[in-house]
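Run log, item B.
One chain of 132 residues. Sequence copied directly from the ordering sheet:
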Amino acid sequence: MLFKKKKFERKVILQREVLDSILSYCQMQHPEEGILILKGKSKNGEINVDGLVIPPFNYTGDTFAGIPNSFLPFDMSYIGIVHSHPSGDAEPSVTDLNNFFGLVSLIVKSPYSDDSVFAWDSSGNAIPLSIK
């Protein structure tokens, strides 16, 4: 093999202010799902989330939340999405995986506390999450 590719273990670092904003947004949207775009940077497998965007033209309901990707402005700092699961289940659904956007998907389950946030990759594998 001519070139060896380093394999990085992914991890997500979520800023405290961003977490508080996510939890507040999910509580306001309850009992419907809420969806936000994650902003940040990724380097050597470390995904640092330091901002949020309310997506334009998002649509939500009791069991779904989505965004039309064609209306998103070009921004290289978009690294994923976060959405809520009011049902209390944090596992990504098949629909969640089929509509994966970016490097990471955060799912927040009801009752929307610090321990209710989980990170997933595009295959549905859990990614370690820490709060900074």
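Observations after the first pass:
- The first strand starts at residue 11 and ends at 14.
- The two ends are 39 Å apart (CA to CA).
Flagged for discussion on Thursday.
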